[in-house]
Design goal:
67% of the residues lie in helices and 5% in strands. By secondary structure, it is mainly alpha-helical. It is elongated. The relative contact order is 0.14.
């Protein structure tokens, strides 16, 4: 059993699924609309949607014969928060390296 963050990153590892999420960021739509830009069948797109749905990245509702998919942002926010903590650590390390290099350069100019 995977935790939610692992499911999110696993789902995002596929470029087709990322493209589907990008399309859904413009608004909810049907499987047939989502399948149009891809060279794949509607069942193949549906398999991608199931992965995204299990990861909590999309939800699907039913309106008569239409079953639109909608982007769910919370798992993306959690992934962003996880990445952000490492980005901040690396920026702090680069800032310290930059300060050290500036100190070495200033020393070199004084000598």
């Amino acid at each position: 059993m995977q935790d939610r963050l692992s499911k999110t990153f696993s789902a995002l590892s596929d470029p087709t699924r990322r493209a589907i999420l990008a399309r859904l960021s413009a608004g909810e739509t049907s499987v047939s609309e989502l399948a149009k830009p891809f060279q794949m069948t509607a069942p193949a797109v549906t398999r991608h949607l199931k992965v995204l749905e299990r990861a909590g990245l999309i939800s699907r509702t039913r309106h008569a014969q239409w079953r639109p998919a909608r982007l769910e942002a919370l798992p993306l926010k959690e992934a962003l928060d996880w990445i952000e903590q490492y980005r901040q650590q690396w920026e702090e390390r680069f800032d310290r390296l930059d300060q050290y290099l500036q100190m070495l350069q200033a020393k070199g100019e004084q000598e």
